[in-house]
Each structure stands twice: as structure tokens, then as C-alpha cells.
Design goal:
GMP Synthetase, Chain A, domain 3, 2 domains, 7-stranded mixed beta sheet, 5-stranded parallel beta sheet, 20 helices, 30 strands, binds 5'-O-(acetylsulfamoyl)adenosine
Length: 635
């Protein structure tokens, strides 16, 4: 029996038991057998959740790109590593073999070096889903630079905040991007952002749309001519196990985004291990995750996890609705996809369209279907199972977070019997706990509480960049000695977990985590706005949509309301991005507040979801009369 590849349920239970009885021996065995180390570790694990401090494989030396690329060259040199499918179905797909990937990453790494990037420097990557995105990520890792990918749908303000927060010297971008029938001027967004970022010395620009853009002399360089001149070999920087690999920003419930910092060895071991088991990847399979590399799902399960296993991983530039709603299934047929991993919001959007878009294509290559990002509702689960998987493909409902680096709760296909809406059982090495309001663990099956993890797993984020105190406060202070996820969960009679959703002020819209605070900050910048509060309400495609309650200043009272609504959404688009736009905006005379001045979002949430039969205790409100009025005028 191998710990590395679970093939049936008894094996899962055996492996799981071993993994919690002796986590260090368990992960040591996985690390030993499946990776290439320049130097072996001295200690497998050192941890203290009260500080908090977590170190895996201390003393080990490695480079993650040697594990993702070089060590496959001999046996898989001509195998496709990255299969790029462009936005436009008329443009040819590109197969990048492991050998070609080695050359392209090496050249790119040499360009980074030539432009003065050294180990430990931060590099912001703001690119669409084109091969240069994965290649630049790997090129950073090759030389020990810390990459921070910013999703190319974010606005210039959001980009500038992230550039400044991590102190990046370089930005990698493209002239523009394609998505569906739209062309976006990415370089223009970067130029706007950089007005606020004096420390950026270099901008590398990949050519994609060939639109005319402006290049700033001395700062901006076209990528291709530099690559053409670069050496095709680049010795990998030797990294310590706990050296930072990347920073990825995620929204918090308050204020600034949190730069989650992941380190090298543990992240590599865990993403590789979970990729192999959760997707049951076999040598000649073609695996496709539809996420963008700008999110953690793309980092762990498009780039690092698959490549560490020598897999063929698909990168799709486009949208599920372009040129029509059959695009995903056309790609599945075209590339004979074996594992397909997407988000519930995409499934719901496609399920609303004619079934012909699905039945038109041959989906018989599919073996495993996955979902991630938010709870999947029963209807969407069945549609996915019946029409995409033809009832033959296990659905892996994978629960995890930017902070966890990899999948923590998920069925293992062909081992764990699935159950709609349940993420089911913890991955080996993961020890979940449900906590009650008093901070006590609820033992036994059949429980409902806040989801915590009791013991470190190798890919847990090690800190928030530049703010360790916030890391401690956010994740390790709510429940003593535990990592708190921010999610609520149920456990059924056999111990299966069902994630019920966020219990903090993060709202998941179409699978994107949005903190309420940054959106409110953006709205409040509008000159006519005095104060605002955002809540989520159920939406049949997006999962949640945003409902904004806005108090106008006296000067705003006379303004046309429809124009104001447009301007408010415009503010949000500029500060955060179009994904954070409000579906409904209600102008209110006041917001329900506690005596300590905290907005009672619970009440606003109920009004927004038209569930006002029982508003709960409003006696602690400073201004109970405002609730009546908000209810009367609600949308
Ligand atoms: C991977 C990712 C994290 C939050 C998390 C949950 C929610 C993710 C599921 C899920 C129910 C799932 N990272 N979430 N997966 N909820 N079932 N299978 O999405 O940092 O962007 O979001 O997403 O609330 O805390 S993330």
C-alpha cells in the first residue's frame, strides 16, 4: 500500500488513521518518495498555533520548478505539460511539452535576472490566461522571486494596493486581454495603477491583442525581444523549505486585502499529493481546471499540483458563454478531457441554458468532475452529475481556501461514496473540528458549528505579508489552539462535512470572495454618500448577489436616484472591479446599529433575502424605528 495514491475506501481509512496517529511519519514518507530534494530536511514539523508558527521540512533544500519540470524531462520530455486553449475557437490550441516548458521558463527566468530581480524580490503578475502567465509564475519560482498574481479582472486601484502592499519592483502584464467578445486594455490599467506605485522599476509586456498601447521609456519593455535574446538554460536557485514561494491576496472582512504568504516545500508536497488523489490522475490523462491562475485554485491545481505530477494541464483563456454556452463541452470533446474542475456558479449558469449545448458533444472521456469555491446546491449537483458526468463520474466537491493552499475536505473518487452538497471527508493529514458558540469542540457525529482545523497540514499559509498580528487575530484567536476557517459546517451521522457558508463578513459572489468593507469604502468615496452597508442575498446563478443600503448626504438627496445608482456601481468598478457591482441599491434614512455602533448586518441580510418573518432580537438596537422603514421600501 502506498500513502501517495489511495485507490479504495478501506485504503482511505487506513491511510487517514496513519496520517493522524503520526502526521510527521506520514508526510515524511510522502515527501521522501515523490519529490526531488537538493538536501533532506532535519525536522519534518515544528509548530505552535499560539504564536502562530508553522514550519514543515526545515533544513530541506529544493527548487519547486525542478520538481515540476526538470525531473520529468527524461521520461516525459515530449509529453504536453500545458495545453493552451485560446479564447477564440478558431485559433489553434498550443501544446507546450515539458521540454519546451523547461526552455521557456528558463529564458523567462534569465530575463527576470537581467532586469535585476533577485531571490526574495516580489514580482506582480497581471496577465490574462495565456501561457506567459504560468511561465512567468514558474520563472519567478526558478530564481526564488516571490510571485504575486493579481487576477486580471481587478481594477487599477486594487492592483496598485497590492503592488504597494508587497513592495513589488516589477510588474508583468500584456498589451490587452480577450474574454468572450470583449477586448480589455490591460496595459492601460497598469499605467493607471503605476501612477500610485513609485517603487516599480520595470514593466514587462507580453503581446496578445496587438492593440496600440503606450510604453514608458526606460520602464516598459516588450517581453518577446528579451526572451529571444535570453539563454535557454537557467540554473535553479536553491531554496530553503520555508522560503516564500508566493503571496496571493484574498479579501478580508475588514479593510485591506490580506497577502497570504505560502512557502516552498510544504506547499509543493501538499498540492501534489491532493492533486493525485482528489482527481485520481493517471499518466495519460488530460486534466482541465477552468479557474483563473489569479486565484488560489489556479495556482495549486492548474500550475503546481498537476506539473509536480507530470500531468497535462489545460489553460483556457476564454469564457463559458463564448461563442456559445457549449464552449466548455466542445473543449472537453476536442481535448478528450478526463478530469474537469469548475465552480458551482459556472454550473448553474450553464444549467439554465438549453441541454442541447451539452448533448451535442461527446463527453465520454470524462472520469472525474470537480467543484470548488462555494457550496454547490442540490439542483446544480444533479445537473452536473446527470448531464455532464452521465451518472458515471464521481463529483468531488472540494472544500478549501486561499489560506489552506490545497484541498482539505473532499471525496476521493472511486473510494468515498459521494453525497450531494457534501464535501464529505477530510484529506489524509487534515483534522477538522466543529466548535460551538462557547468555543468548545462539538464531539461525535451530527453536529453544526464553526469549522476549525486542529493540526497543521503542509500547505497552510504561514503569515499575512507584513502583518503577522493580523494573521494571528484572523485565524488563531477565535478558538484557542485552532485554525479558524471563517466557515460554518454541518457533520452528518457518518461524519461527512457539509460547508454551509461564511460566518463572517465575506460574501462569495460567483465564486469570488468579496469583503464587505472594501466595497463600502468604495461607495463612501462618492461625494453624495454618507454611509453604506453591503450584504449578500441568494441569487440563482451567482450563488449570492450584493445588496447595498446607502445613506445619502443632504446634498445628495435632490439627485436623480438612477444616476446615483450608476455612479455608485462605477465607483465600485474603479476601486475593486466589475465583479463587486451591486445588484440592488436601496437608499435608506439610516442603518440599524447596536449601541456600540456596529451595523446589524443580520437584519439587513434578512431584509435583502425577503425573510422578515423573524428578525430576531432587535432590542439592542440604537434606532429600531429605522428597520420598519427599510423593510417598507425594500427592493
Ligand atoms: C478554493 C477557494 C474560500 C472560501 C471558503 C468557503 C468557500 C470553497 C467550497 C466552499 C462550500 C466548497 N478559495 N468554499 N470551496 N464552500 N463548498 N466546496 O475557493 O479563498 O477563494 O475561498 O470559499 O467559504 O472559506 S477562496
Amino acid at each position: 500500500m502506498s500513502n501517495y495514491h489511495i485507490k479504495h475506501l478501506e485504503e482511505y481509512f487506513q491511510v487517514y488513521r496513519k496520517s493522524v496517529q503520526n502526521p510527521e511519519a506520514f508526510w515524511e514518507e510522502v515527501a521522501e518518495e515523490h519529490f526531488f530534494w537538493r538536501k533532506r530536511w532535519d525536522r519534518v514539523l515544528e509548530w505552535d498555533f499560539t504564536k502562530p508558527e508553522i514550519k514543515w521540512f526545515e533544513g530541506a533544500q529544493l527548487n519547486i520548478t525542478e520538481n515540476c519540470i526538470d525531473r520529468h524531462l527524461r521520461s516525459r520530455g515530449n509529453k504536453t505539460a500545458i495545453l493552451f486553449e485560446p479564447n477564440d475557437p478558431g485559433e489553434a490550441a498550443e501544446h507546450i511539452t515539458y521540454r519546451q516548458l523547461h526552455e521557456r521558463v528558463s529564458k523567462f527566468a534569465n530575463v527576470l535576472k537581467e532586469k535585476g530581480i533577485k531571490k526574495g524580490d516580489r514580482v506582480i503578475i497581471y496577465l490574462p490566461m495565456i501561457p506567459e502567465l504560468a511561465i512567468s509564475v514558474l520563472a519567478c519560482a526558478r530564481i526564488g522571486a516571490i510571485h504575486s498574481v493579481v487576477f486580471a479582472g481587478f481594477s487599477s486601484t486594487a492592483l496598485a494596493t497590492r503592488i504597494n502592499d508587497c513592495g513589488a519592483k516589477m510588474v508583468i502584464t500584456s498589451d490587452g486581454s480577450y474574454r468572450g467578445n470583449k477586448t480589455i486594455d490591460l496595459k492601460g490599467i497598469v499605467d493607471e495603477a503605476l501612477k500610485q506605485c513609485p517603487h516599480v522599476e520595470t514593466v514587462l509586456v507580453a503581446k496578445r491583442t496587438k492593440e496600440k498601447i503606450s510604453m514608458k521609456n526606460g520602464r516598459d519593455h516588450w517581453l518577446q525581444p528579451l526572451l529571444d535574446k535570453a539563454y535557454a538554460d537557467c540554473v535553479a536557485e536553491i531554496m530553503e523549505a520555508e522560503d516564500p514561494l508566493f503571496i496571493l491576496y484574498t479579501s478580508g472582512s475588514t479593510g485591506r486585502p490580506k497577502g497570504m504568504m505560502h512557502t516552498t516545500a510544504g506547499y509543493m508536497v501538499y498540492t501534489a499529493y491532493t492533486f493525485k488523489n482528489v482527481f485520481q490522475y493517471r499518466e495519460d490523462d488530460v486534466y482541465w481546471c477552468t479557474a483563473d491562475i489569479g486565484w488560489i485554485t489556479g495556482h495549486s491545481y492548474i500550475v503546481y499540483g498537476p506539473l509536480a505530477n507530470g500531468a497535462t494541464t489545460v489553460m483556457f483563456e476564454g469564457a463559458p458563454s463564448y461563442p456559445d454556452f457549449g464552449r466548455f463541452w466542445e473543449i472537453v470533446q476536442k481535448h478528450k478531457i478526463n478530469q474537469f474542475y469548475t465552480a458551482p456558479t459556472a454550473i448553474r449558469a450553464l444549467a439554465k441554458e438549453s441541454l442541447d449545448f451539452v448533448t451535442k458533444y461527446d463527453l465520454s472521456s470524462l472520469k472525474v468532475l470537480g467543484t470548488v469555491g462555494e457550496p454547490i446546491n442540490e439542483e446544480a449537483w444533479h445537473w452536473y452529475n446527470d448531464h455532464v458526468g452521465d451518472k458515471k463520474c464521481p463529483i468531488v466537491d472540494t472544500w478549501w481556501q486561499t489560506e489552506t493552499g490545497g484541498i482539505l475536505i473532499s471525496p476521493i473518487p472511486y473510494s468515498t461514496p459521494t453525497k450531494p452538497t457534501y464535501a464529505t471527508l477530510p484529506v489524509p493529514g487534515v483534522q477538522p473540528a466543529l466548535m460551538d458558540e462557547n468555543g468548545k469542540e462539538i464531539k461525535g457525529n451530527q453536529a453544526d458549528g464553526r469549522l476549525c482545523i486542529k493540526f497543521p497540514w503542509p500547505s497552510i499559509a504561514r503569515t499575512i505579508w507584513g502583518d503577522h498580528q493580523r494573521y494571528k487575530d484572523t485565524y488563531f484567536s477565535a478558538f484557542e489552539g485552532m485554525y479558524f476557517t471563517g466557515d460554518g459546517a454541518l457533520r452528518d451521522e457518518v461524519g461527512y462535512y457539509r460547508i454551509t457558508g461564511r460566518v463572517d463578513d465575506v460574501i462569495i459572489v460567483s465564486g469570488h470572495n468579496l469583503g464587505t468593507a472594501p466595497i463600502e469604502d468604495a461607495i463612501n468615496e462618492h461625494p453624495a454618500v454618507a454611509e453604506s452597508a453591503i450584504v449578500g442575498f441568494p441569487h440563482d446563478v451567482k450563488g449570492n448577489a450584493l445588496y447595498g443600503y446607502v445613506i445619502l448626504k443632504e446634498t445628495g438627496e435632490s439627485r436623480d436616484r438612477d444616476n446615483l445608482k450608476k455612479e455608485i456601481n462605477q465607483m465600485i468598478t474603479e476601486h475593486i472591479g466589475p465583479i463587486a457591482k451591486l445588484d440592488k441599491i436601496q437608499f435608506v434614512p439610516g442603518l440599524p446599529k447596536t449601541r456600540s455602533g456596529k451595523i446589524m448586518r443580520r437584519i439587513l441580510r434578512k431584509i435583502a433575502s425577503k425573510d422578515t418573518s423573524n428578525l430576531g432580537d432587535t432590542s439592542t438596537l440604537l434606532n429600531p424605528e429605522v428597520v420598519e422603514q427599510i423593510m417598507k421600501e425594500s427592493l
